[in-house]
Write a structure and sequence with these properties.
The chain is mainly beta. It has one domain (about 1-420): Outer membrane protein transport protein (OMPP1/FadL/TodX) (Porin, Beta Barrel). It has three helices and 20 strands. The protein has helices at about 1-20, 35-40, 55-60, and strands at about 70-90, 110-120, 125-130, 140, 155-170, 175-190, 195-220, 220-230, 230-240, 250-255, 260-270, 275-280, 290-295, 305-310, 315-325, 330-340, 355-365, 370-380, 385-390, 400-420. It has a 14-stranded antiparallel beta barrel with strand order 1-2-3-5-6-7-8-11-12-15-16-17-18-20. Strand 5 (about 155-170) and strand 6 form a beta hairpin. The protein is elongated.
Length: about 425
Amino acid sequence: MASQLRKKIVAVAVGATLGGLATGAFGGGFGIGTQSGSGTGNAFAGGAAAADDASVTWYNPAAMMALPSGSQVAGALHAVKTSFKFQNQGSTGVYAAPGTGDGGDGGGWALIPNGFFKMDINPQLRFGVALNAPFGLKTEFDAGWRGQLTALKSEIKAININPSVAYQVSDTVSVGGGLSMQKIEAELSNFAGGAGVSTLSADDIGYGFNLGLIVQASPSTRIGAAYRSAIKYNLEGTVTFTGLPAGNGSIRADLKVPDSASFSVFHALDPKWELMGDITWTGWSSLQQLVVVRTSGPAAGATLTTLPFQWKDTWRYSVGANYKWSDQTKIRFGLAIDESPTNDTTRTARLPDQKRTWLAFGVRQRVSKEGVLDVGYAHEFVKDARVNNTVPGFATCAAGCLTGSFEDKADIFSVQYSHSF
């Protein structure tokens, strides 16, 4: 009987811990849309066609051919401030007890770096590299809060290296492609009753590719299209319990991050104004459930839990404009609508994500013949995110439900320096 009870506690705790696997990030599911300092001021409108600097090696490798000849390096740093504040709206059972409160602010500050490089191989062929963090950030709630059975800390970190090449097919058409090597690390915790605090640590390295096309439709209009493949991970790691060391062990969970496709337009309206737009599709419907398997002990090979996500594909729409104040200064503006893959049924406190509207502006300043400095700011207005989470291990609210909504928002501050040589 004691053995069966211990197994039940372990299964429930692991399920609760993994319920938010890879969902520590804010924005676009668990993706980070902030991948260049120059793009922030335009809300990343026209990303596959703008060709402002070496960051195109990530957004559309073909657009390297639209940059001036020579070599260029660009480095960006983004300071992101997220906020997730839970508003209780009739939680029941074990979630009705207030504990230490409603969790405080589950958001916080995060620093996200990017680095890019491009060089000419010959007049028709260019090489580039992107080093960035496509997934990340975290949520962390106060110990003892009413929702601690669902989530305490959820953190994911990813680093990606993406070499690519671009080839000029004709005077108006260029193509490009690259390969990605991406490492993901996750640390997730929650309170697991008699088992104490449960913590999961897992990681893996995955591989993917990206393709791009750029068309100079006219001297003033450029069209870009880009595709980035899905990446599969066989996450392996450990689960530990502060109150039940006998439940410690190793686990495995297969995860697939989605593919995406973008279509962008850049148009120079006149010598002063530049206009741009972008539509990006992301295939989040590939994440329907997460099957967790134990890989150590007598139960090795057994499925501990199957976790529903039931996410849907998303669309992101953005428009932007640049105003050339002078030969040295450019003012940027941007607006974006970013859908969420989550839904009111399976959304959890680990990632209280919802539809977001971006409002952005920025400044580009040429500081020398070779150097350009970009500064940008974006605010994300987020729709309230409803949650109705059952107790881990229960399909209904028989033991209680965490019911309420999260008031979310985010601020992004970006700085980037690009140097040509």
